[in-house]
Design a protein that fits this description.
about 100 residues; mainly alpha
Length: about 100
Amino acid sequence: MQIRLNQVYEGFHACLNRQDLNGLIPYIKSFREFITDKSEPIPGKVIVELGIVPHLISLLEEKFSQYQQLQIEIAWFLANLTAGGSDDTAYLVDQNII
């Protein structure tokens, strides 16, 4: 699972560096699936420590509103992250997202 997480993280950053915002969608889905996987979930804290959340939050700004599917995936990921535990929720509060 850790190898797959690293691959998703690298792909996510490659899309960010290319400014391929629609290309981020499958990576965000993967991050969401990692934290909600019933058989082998990855704690939200691990995802938070990757440092992707500030990037995701910035993509929710209105100037990116033409990327509706991207914003839906980000919102879904953040909603699932809040369900992970009080530390994850507190982190999102500190990020002024909730």
